[in-house]
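Title: Comparing notes on inverse folding

I've been comparing how different people in this forum approach sequence design from structure. To keep things fair, I'm posting one structure and asking everyone to reply with a full sequence. Here's the target:
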């Protein structure tokens, strides 16, 4: 289980780096700061799944979960959301190191 959580964390970290580099390249090319939100990045990749997730959350879970919560998350920078997801899954998988014993340095 810990391996799966760390793998998800690694994938989210890779996505954070990719989206951060993408924003940096766009910023250098346009000579101004460009920050891509998670919602616009998701819409550019797959608008069908974005609409399906909205329908799923509003229909099956709760309508108020989409409007204040998910819309706020979708407005955040994509690299920051993926970085927070990576940190969350890494902290879940983290195990406190065992003490070395009485012969430790």
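Reply #1:
Here's my take.
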């Amino acid at each position: 289980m810990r391996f799966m959580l760390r793998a998800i964390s690694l994938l989210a970290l890779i996505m954070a780096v990719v989206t951060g580099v993408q924003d940096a390249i766009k910023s250098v090319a346009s000579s101004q700061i460009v920050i891509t939100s998670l919602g616009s990045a998701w819409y550019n990749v797959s608008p069908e799944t974005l609409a399906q997730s909205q329908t799923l959350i509003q229909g099956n879970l709760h309508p108020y979960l989409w409007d204040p919560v998910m819309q706020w998350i979708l407005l955040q920078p994509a690299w920051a959301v993926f970085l927070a997801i990576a940190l969350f899954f890494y902290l879940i998988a983290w195990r406190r190191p065992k003490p070395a014993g009485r012969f430790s340095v």
